[in-house]
Write the structure tokens for this entry.
Amino acid sequence: MIGRRGGKTRLLALIAIYLAAFHSWKKFLAPGETGSIVVVAASKPQAELLLKYVRAMLTECPMLKRLIVRDVRGSIELSTGAVIEVLVSDYRLVRGRSALACVVDEIAFLNTDEFSVSPDSEVLAALKPSTATIPGAMTIISSSPYARRGELWRNYKRLWGQNVPDEIVWQAASRTMNPCISQAFVDAELAKDPAAASSEYLSTFRSDIEAFVSREAVESCINTGVYEIPPSKSRHVIFGLDPSGGAGSDSMALMGAFKDGDVAALAVLREWVPRFDPSQAAAEAAEVIKSYGANTCWADKYGGDWVAAEFRRHGVTVRYNEKSASELFIELLPLINAGKVSILHDARLISQLCNLERRNTRSLGKPLIGAPPLQHDDLACAFATACVAVHVKAPMRISAEFMTAHRNWIAMGRGERAAAQAAYGTRTVVAIGNRWLPPAGGETKRLRRKEGGTP
């Protein structure tokens, strides 16, 4: 566990070369079997950075260069029977190998939620059996520290300061490992943001980051076994959109929710995973919106006017939130904790909600809510947009009794209306229970707006 720019990746590359080049593993391998030194990271480009260091160290030393049998993208095979290969962090892809060593880089930034697609715990569990038949095989996890959760934190608590055979924790600040980093630079970063800089350069876990919402609270809101609620004329569905251009790593997400008593119930969920054509995705999203009898959706201001213009082509109006995603998440939290939302049974949405984290920021003077580094909150953001909109913008239900009274007012003659106004006041004419209702026209619209409805 070493701070940023402390040389973790180069050190791991050196260990991988030592294990691959200075040991003969053939006696432990069956004929045709290859022993792998597996390098795992959050993304393949990140893991390939370590492979670049390995390649440079091997090719620049004539003695080691002679050991290279095959050098292809993603792996280097040596004559000792070892292959150094890089893989993405997916417990399904790391299986099926005889591992001479397993190296997991920047493990603090892998998924930590046990119900996510590929959590760090499952990746390590899938790697461990690969070393069972190789004497002396090692598992090395390396990272700059981050939040107090996940396998890095659990192993740190279990091993730090303890005399555990065959297991050790190495913790060092950036300047301890790399004196080329100036103390003035570190001091300046500590002055700006002590919590973040302490994690980055002093190799300490952050104390200002915590889970935003508990998994128990989210699970209590799940509509178990329900994956979509079909359109109905009796439901007014409000849509939240988290747009994306389709070329990066972010999905485009669409959520539709309706008011069910005092609960915002999610009715429909759509996700467009990159890469995708944003125009085609907008057309498909518009069809979903219109199929539920709506012609409006709420979104943030991503992409400027492009999003609104694209949806307008398909008969849907995009309205922009004045609040940020972080502010919407803060408004969503009491709704989840009070059970005022109903969540469709979708594993990705549930995982994103549970992975949201709260960061206390000095510069903003308020907490910032969002996904951890290298993870996403597209579905969670669209869900928050829709549910908050339902509770704020849900239309007032007009009773049949009101409509009868309103029609009676319209049918009154001028003299009867004047008498009613004289008896009940100049702006209210019909009493239903203890509630006074205004005449038709602009006054009705103003009342409905005041009560949280839409005209």
